[in-house]
């Protein structure tokens, strides 16, 4: 991908989000997703640089990061929620939006299908079977997405605005046993089992097991996001083994 293509994609994204603001008003939830998408694009560029990707592949990673959440906008317009299990899968909805709304002449057919795949698969629990170069692009987008979600969650909780991103959850301090059991068993849990804010924080902390690049975990540790989560989660006997697994992963990535 050429830089001029990336510039055109940025303009399209701005027009795309502006269209939803005209329909729905400039809602905080939609603004949150727009800013998130721009930061994910920035994270993808940082990781691509760290991996010594070519300029062309770096531009493609940035574009994929920018577009990864375009399904969030029609999701919120049509359903009033970002909870996939209560509405639609936003990855699938994003691929649909790309195929319906995106000007295909901005990309080669191969680039278009690659970005469509990253949009569709970025939020899925398991990685699909893909050629190595496609899998590398998907992994960089998934890491970049998670890196920014840590930031968004931390900032909202510190401002006392957690209801803006996780409405309807129970208070901190209570952890659901199915979440702990799932994380201990295979380091994963289901979104529809999250009942409290503490469930969400523990679930999010365990994303370090899914990071494709050590630099991603190192970046999160250096920013203080992981340590903040560990300090925030109730240190019960049931939770301590989960935290120990996380600390082992952090140690492998950072050398601490």
UniProtKB/TrEMBL annotation:
Kindly give the InterPro entries that the UniProt entry links to this protein: HD/PDEase_dom, HD_domain
Show the SUPFAM superfamilies listed in the entry.
Answer: HD-domain/PDEase-like
Pfam families in the record? HD (PF01966)
Q: Which domain of life is it from?
A: Bacteria
> Per the UniProt record, which residue ranges are transmembrane?
none
- This protein's species is Dethiosulfovibrio salsuginis
Q: Where is the HD domain?
A: 33-150
Name of this protein: HD domain-containing protein
């Amino acid at each position: 991908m050429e830089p001029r293509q990336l510039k055109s994609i940025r303009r399209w994204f701005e027009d795309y989000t502006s269209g939803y603001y005209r329909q729905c008003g400039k809602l905080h939830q939609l603004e949150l997703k727009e800013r998130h998408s721009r930061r994910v694009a920035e994270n993808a560029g940082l990781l691509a640089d760290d991996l010594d990707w070519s300029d062309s592949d770096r531009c493609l990673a940035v574009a994929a990061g920018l577009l990864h959440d375009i399904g969030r906008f029609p999701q919120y317009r049509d359903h009033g929620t970002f909870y996939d299990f209560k509405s639609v899968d936003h990855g699938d909805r994003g691929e649909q939006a790309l195929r319906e709304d995106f000007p295909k002449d901005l990309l080669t057919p191969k680039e278009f299908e690659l970005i469509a795949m990253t949009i569709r698969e970025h939020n899925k629990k398991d990685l699909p079977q893909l050629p190595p170069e496609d899998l590398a692009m998907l992994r960089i987008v998934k890491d970049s997405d998670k890196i920014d979600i840590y930031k968004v969650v931390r900032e909202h909780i510190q401002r006392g605005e957690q209801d803006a991103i996780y409405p309807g959850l129970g208070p901190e301090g209570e952890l659901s046993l199915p979440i702990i059991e799932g994380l201990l068993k295979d380091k994963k849990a289901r979104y529809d089992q999250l009942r409290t804010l503490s469930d969400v924080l523990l679930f999010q902390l365990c994303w370090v097991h899914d990071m494709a690049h050590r630099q991603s975990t190192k970046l999160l540790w250096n920013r203080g996001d992981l340590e903040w989560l560990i300090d925030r989660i109730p240190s019960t006997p049931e939770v301590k083994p989960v935290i120990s697994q996380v600390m082992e992963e952090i140690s492998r990535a950072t050398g601490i």
